[in-house]
Amino acid sequence: MTFRSMMAMVVFGAASLPCALAQAPTRFTVTVEGKGPDVVLLPGLASSRAVYDDEAKLLTPHYTLHRVQINGFAGSPAGPNAEGPLLMPIVEELHGYIAANKLHPAVIGHSLGGLLTLMLAAKYPGDIDKMMIVDALPFYGLVFNKDATVEMLKPQVDAMAGQMLAMPDDQFAAIQPMVVKTMVNSPEGQKAVAKSSITSDRTVYVHAMQEDMATDVRPSLASIKTPAVLIYPFDGTVVKDPAPITAVYTSAYATMPQIRFVKVDNSRHFIMYDQPAVFDAQVQAFLK
To answer: What are the GO MF terms of this UniProt record (predicted)?
Structure first.
């Protein structure tokens, strides 16, 4: 896996509510569909809730899906996400949504959505029944260097953020298909991911990326007792030996007491697009 593809993986990765809330979420919207046990689906950075469309069709006959989309991503209005901190305010509103609706859901989070899931489980341990983390690390700096720290990466991340914010719209749109190819093999998936990125509010996108790279949940992992499964991709066309890739994930989560790991072959970051049948099998097993 090249530095460019790893950095690309980091960069990536109108609703109805089930009942009236005392204060509706302002950081995200939720669509609710299906019938059965509750499942919250969290997409990743700059992604739409549509990333789970195919899986949702298979789950709605048996589960009630709460499909989240962060405001400012994939063409949605930025709202209060346009300025100030994002991740912890989103976690607080997720907690408020779960509490107001008296849920105790399974949560599936991809990429940045996986990080938000970890943050929620760490701060509000009673909120989540069980969780599936889809290709997310508790600190993404580990992708670049096993000894990385937030402080070490900050100059690089800030420089990249400045470049992304200053880039003209046409130039940004032109490079997204190339960036996306490092994260998803499926042509259909490439189109969907690129569109979500291009139509995202650039400020929300970049600031969320900066917070993602500046968040290290590892000190809280030992306190997270929620049962968890981590599924992560392996693309043999990029690297031949899966052992170093597996080591990044297992060492990152070493202190988390109830987690198991599942490697998905022939896939890149968007497992739900590259290996939909395997993804569904893992989700079904997780929920049952």
So the answer is: hydrolase activity
User: How high is the pLDDT of residue 105?
Assistant: 98
Helix extents (H) in the chain: 3-11, 53-59, 87-100, 112-123, 150-166, 169-181, 187-199, 202-213, 243-252, 271-274, 276-287
pLDDT tens digits, residue range 205-234?
A: 999 999 999 999 999 999 999 999 999 999
Collapsed DSSP state (helix, strand, coil) of residue 105: coil
Residues 6+ apart with CB under 8 A from 288: none
**pLDDT score of 6 more than 90:** no
What pLDDT is stored for residue 156 in this prediction?
Answer: 93
- Answer whether 10's CB lies under 8 Å from 46's CB: no
Q: Residue 2 pLDDT more than 70? A: no
State the Cα–Cα distance between residues 169 and 241, nearest whole angstrom. Answer: 38
Read off the amino acid at residue 79: G
pLDDT at 23: 66
Q: Could you identify the residue written with the tokens 């790279």? A: 213
Residues 6+ apart with CB under 8 A from 209: 10, 11, 45, 157, 161, 164
Q: 181-212, pLDDT tens digit by residue?
A: 999 999 999 999 999 999 999 999 999 999 99
Name the nearest CA neighbour of 109 among 118, 100, 99: 118
CA distance 212 to 140: 8
Q: Which of 205, 230, 212, 190 is nearest to 87 (CA)?
A: 212
Tokens linked to 236: 């043999």
Collapse the DSSP code of 106 into the 3-class scheme (helix H, G, I; strand E, B; otherwise coil) and give the result: strand
Domains of the chain: 3-283 (3.40.50.1820)
